[in-house]
Design brief:
The strands form six sheets. This protein has a seven-stranded mixed sheet, with helices on both faces. It has four domains: 182 residues, Rossmann fold (3-Layer(aba) Sandwich), CATH 3.40.50.2300; 88 residues, no CATH class; 283 residues, pyruvate-formate lyase- activating enzyme (Alpha-Beta Horseshoe); 99 residues, no CATH class. It is 40% helix and 15% strand. It contains 29 helices and 22 strands. The protein starts with 9 loop residues before the first strand and ends with a strand. With 734 residues, the protein is an alpha/beta fold.
Length: 734
C-alpha cells in the first residue's frame, strides 16, 4: 500500500564507523523497500562522510592543531607532528588516489619519497615478499594505507582514544550488559570526532527535514556514535521521532529493560525491518493507531515490547531492490590488507551487497544464534529475481562487483544463479559465504567460476571430526579438504573461519586442528583463514543448553545488552594462551612459508605432538571422486558454439564419414571428432544442453535420446576421448 498523505519523510543513516570501501547495505535495503510503498526517504553513511572531512587538507590542519595540545606525546606522535606539513600537503591527493580518481599518483607513491613515513612503515621490510607479486597500483595503495594508519595512531594517542577506521568506540558496545558506561560517556562533552559527526548530521537534518529518523547499528562499534547522534537530535530537533534497528539490537537488545535508553531514542525494532518501520509510520501519522511489530518502546516509565500487528512479514520477492542512491558511491576509499587475502577483499574495491536467501538453510550449528529469526527463518530468492536485482544495481551504481552477505549461500541456488548469469551474459564479479558441502563438486565449482565467482568463505571452525559433530556442522575435515580442492582447482579463492576454545575442546584437539590447517595450506587448497576464540551467545544452542555442552554460563541477565555471555568451560583449559601461536603460524602459512617448522615452535609453552598423520590432507584430496553419474544429474555445456564439418576419411580403400567440431574458447582452440551418426546426433544435443537454454536436460534424458536414435552403448560414448576432451573445456555434470 502507498501512504495516502505521505506526511512522513524518513532519514536513514549508518553511524561511524563500518567500512571505508563500500557502504553497509542495511539502509539501502530499507530504502529499496520504502520505494515499493512510495514513501520518501533519504539515506547517508555518516562514517565515510566523517572520514572524508577528517582526512582532507583543512581536516588535517584542524587535527594537528588539536594534537599539538596533547601533553607528552610518544616518539611516534612527535615524529608525525613534526612532519605535519608533508601530511597536509599530500592528503587530498592520496584520498583521491584511494578513491580511484588519481591513478597516476601511484608512480610517485612507489618512489617512496612522496609520503611521510612513521612507525607503520617499519613493517615494510617484512613484507618485501608481497611487493614482489604486486603491481604498481596495489603497492601504492598499500603504502597509502600505511600512511593513513600512521595518522590513525596519532589520533588514538593525542585526539580520541576510541578512534578506529571501523568499529569506533567498540569497547563501549561489546559485552555491555549494563548501560552505565555508555550513559556516562554520553554525559561528557562531545569529542573532537563527535563534533565533526554532529556538524554533518545537523546539515543533513536541516536539508532533509525528516519526521522519522532510522539509525542502523550493525556492530558494537557503531553503538556509541548512534547514541551520540540520537542525543543531538533529541536536544536540537525534539519533534523528530528516532528508531534504532540493525544487527546489534537484533542480537543484543532483545531483553532490554533500562529505561534510560529511551531518553535518546523512541523505538527499537528487531529482526526484519520492513513491517516494523511501516507500522512506526502508521503510528506517527495516526497517534491512535497503537499497533507495532517487534518494537521496544517506553510506556509509563517502563520498557515494553509490542508485537500486536497482524501484518505478516514481506516475502523476499516483495521487498524491492536495494537502493544505494544518496550514498557517495564514488567517494569510498579502497585500502589494502596484504596479510590476509579475504580481509583484503573486505577493504579493497566496491561491492554491491545482496542476499541470495533470508536465513540459513542449515540452521544447526550449535555456536550460532539459530534461535533468532534472521537465521531461523529460511527463504531463498529465485535466481531470475536475483539477476533482475543484479542488473538493476549495476545500472544504478555503475559497479559490477557483488558480495552476497548470506549466512551460508545454498549450493542449489548458487548453481541456479550462476546459470542465469551465464544465460543473460552479465559481466559480474561476486563472492559469498558457504558451508563446505559435498555438493560443491569439481563441475559446480567450474560453473561458479565461469559466472564470475572469485572467492568463497566457509566455516571449517575446528578441524576435528569429533568437535565438528558436536557443533553439528554436518561436514568432516576430509570433506572440507575435497571441497577446498575443487574450488581452488577452479580458480576460486577459499577462506576458512577457524575456531578454538569450543566447549570440551582439548589441548590435543587444538594442536591437531592447527596441523590440519597447516596441511590445507601446504597442499595449496586453502588460501586464507582467520582464527577466532569461541564466544558464548545467549541465543545459540550452547547458550540455551549449557550443561549439554559442558559449560557453566553466567546466569545474570543485564539490563542492556544480553547476547554475549560469560562462561566457564568445565575442562578448565586456558584457551586464550593459544591465541598468539595460532595467529602467528597462520600468518606464515598464508604466505607459503614455515610449513616445515615443528608446531612446538609457535608456542612458548609445552604442547603435545600432533596425532594427525603428516599426509592426511594430501591423501584426502588425492582420493578420486566417484565417476558414477546420477540419472537426474543436469548436463550443461558452458562453452561456445562450434564450427561443424562433415569430413570423409579413407584408409586402405575404405571410406567413412566423421563429424568434426572446432571450438574456440577464451584461451585456445580445440577440436573433437566423432563418427557421422554420433556427430549428427550430438549437434542437436549441444543445442539442448547449452547454458543459454532455460531448461536443463538430465543425464537420463540425454541417454534415452541417444538410445531412441538407434545408437549403441551410451556408456562407451560418454567415456570416449571426445567427451573427455569436452569435459575439460566446459561440459559439466551438475
Amino acid at each position: 500500500m502507498a501512504f495516502a498523505n505521505a506526511m512522513t519523510k524518513l532519514f536513514l543513516f549508518t553511524p561511524p564507523f563500518t567500512q571505508l570501501n563500500t557502504p553497509y547495505p542495511a539502509t539501502a535495503y530499507i530504502k529499496g523497500f520504502l520505494n515499493t510503498k512510495n514513501i520518501p526517504s533519504v539515506q547517508a553513511d555518516l562514517g565515510i562522510e566523517v572520514i572524508l572531512k577528517m582526512f582532507s587538507k583543512q581536516g588535517l590542519i584542524n587535527l594537528f592543531a588539536k594534537a599539538e595540545q596533547f601533553q607528552n606525546p610518544g616518539k611516534n606522535s612527535q615524529r608525525i607532528i613534526a612532519l605535519k606539513d608533508y601530511y597536509i600537503a599530500t592528503i587530498d591527493a592520496v584520498i583521491l588516489f584511494l578513491q580511484g580518481k588519481n591513478p597516476t599518483l601511484a608512480l610517485s607513491i612507489c618512489q617512496e619519497d612522496f609520503l611521510p613515513e612513521a612507525s607503520r612503515f617499519a613493517q615494510l621490510e617484512e613484507l618485501d615478499w608481497a611487493f614482489g607479486s604486486m603491481g604498481t597500483q596495489d603497492k601504492a595503495k598499500h603504502l597509502a594505507t600505511l600512511y593513513l594508519e600512521d595518522l590513525s595512531d596519532l589520533i588514538v594517542e593525542c585526539v580520541d582514544t576510541n578512534f578506529g577506521f571501523s568499529r569506533y568506540a567498540e569497547r563501549l558496545g561489546r559485552s555491555a550488559s549494563t548501560f552505565n558506561e555508555l550513559y556516562q560517556s554520553l554525559q561528557t562533552k562531545p569529542t573532537y570526532i563527535d563534533n565533526i559527526l554532529l556538524e554533518i548530521l545537523n546539515e543533513k537534518i536541516t536539508q532533509v527535514q525528516p519526521t522519522l529518523v532510522l539509525i542502523s547499528v550493525p556492530f558494537p562499534g557503531n553503538l556509541y556514535a548512534a547514541f551520540r547522534s540520537a542525543q543531538f537530535l533529541k536536544n536540537n530537533f525534539p519533534n523528530i521521532k528516532i528508531s534504532m534497528g540493525g544487527g546489534f539490537p537484533n542480537t543484543e537488545l532483545r531483553s532490554l529493560s533500562d529505561a534510560r535508553v529511551f531518553q535518546f531514542i523512541d523505538f527499537i525494532t528487531l529482526d526484519d525491518g520492513e513491517v516494523p518501520v511501516e507500522e512506526l509510520i502508521n503510528n506517527i501519522e495516526n497517534p491512535t493507531y497503537n499497533t507495532f511489530k517487534r518494537t521496544l518502546l517506553l510506556e509509563e516509565g517502563k520498557v515494553v515490547y509490542k508485537n500486536n500487528s497482524a501484518k505478516s512479514d514481506y516475502k523476499q520477492s516483495e521487498v524491492g531492490t536495494p537502493d544505494y542512491s544518496d550514498l557517495k558511491l564514488d567517494q569510498y576509499i579502497s585500502v589494502i590488507e596484504i596479510v590476509n587475502p579475504m580481509h583484503r577483499m573486505w577493504s579493497d574495491g566496491r561491492w554491491n551487497k545482496l542476499t541470495m536467501a533470508h536465513g540459513c538453510y542449515w540452521g544447526k550449528c550449535t555456536f550460532c544464534d539459530i534461535s533468532l529469526d534472521y537465521i531461523k527463518i529460511y527463504e531463498p530468492i529465485a535466481a531470475n529475481l536475483l539477476c533482475d536485482r543484479i542488473e538493476e544495481l549495476i545500472a544504478a551504481t555503475g559497479q559490477n562487483g557483488f558480495h552476497f552477505v548470506d549466512e551460508a549461500a545454498p549450493p542449489a541456488l548458487m548453481r541456479a544463479l550462476a546459470l542465469e548469469i551465464l544465460r543473460r551474459k552479465i559481466a559480474v564479479t561476486w563472492w559469498t559465504n558457504i558451508r563446505f558441502e559435498k555438493s560443491f563438486t569439481r563441475d559446480l565449482c567450474i560453473l561458479l567460476k565461469a559466472s564470475g565467482c572469485i572467492a568463497v568463505s566457509g566455516g571449517l571452525e575446528v578441524a576435528s571430526d569429533r568437535l565438528l559433530q558436536l557443533i553439528d556442522k554436518g561436514v568432516t575435515v576430509e570433506q572440507v579438504a575435497k571441497v577446498t580442492r575443487n574450488f581452488t582447482e577452479a580458480g576460486v579463492m577459499v577462506h576458512a573461519y577457524l575456531m578454538y576454545g569450543y566447549p570440551t575442546q582439548t589441548i590435543q584437539e587444538t594442536i591437531d586442528s592447527l596441523e590440519m590447517v597447516r596441511q590445507l595450506f601446504e597442499t595449496g587448497v586453502l588460501q586464507s583463514g582467520f582464527w577466532h576464540q569461541f564466544a558464548l551467545t545467549a541465543h545459540s544452542p550452547v547458550g540455551m543448553y549449557p550443561e549439554k555442552f559442558g559449560v557453566i554460563r553466567d546466569a545474570a541477565t543485564g539490563s542492556f545488552a544480553n547476547n554475549d555471555v560469560n562462561f566457564k568451560d568445565k575442562t578448565g583449559i586456558d584457551h586464550e594462551k593459544f591465541s598468539f601461536g595460532l595467529s602467528k603460524s597462520l600468518y606464515n602459512f598464508m604466505h607459503g612459508i614455515c610449513f616445515d617448522y615443528p608446531l612446538q615452535d609457535w608456542f612458548e609453552f609445552k604442547i603435545p605432538k600432533t596425532k594427525i598423520p603428516h599426509d592426511f590432507i594430501e591423501n584426502a584430496i588425492l582420493e578420486p571422486d566417484s565417476f558414477e553419474v546420477k540419472s537426474n544429474a543436469k548436463i550443461v555445456w558452458i562453452g561456445g558454439k562450434p564450427l561443424i564439418e562433415h569430413i570423409t576419411k579413407s584408409k586402405k580403400g575404405k571410406s567413412w564419414e566423421i563429424t568434426q567440431f572446432t571450438f574456440h574458447d577464451k584461451k585456445e582452440s580445440f577440436f573433437v571428432q566423432m563418427n557421422r551418426e554420433e556427430g549428427t546426433w550430438f549437434v542437436n544435443v549441444l543445442k539442448d544442453i547449452s547454458v543459454e537454454n532455460a531448461k536443463i536436460k538430465s543425464f537420463q534424458q540425454i541417454k534415452s535420446d541417444y538410445e531412441e536414435k538407434g545408437l549403441e552403448n551410451f556408456e562407451l560414448f560418454w567415456n570416449s576421448k571426445p567427451l573427455k576432451t569436452l569435459k575439460s573445456f566446459g561440459l559439466l555434470v551438475l
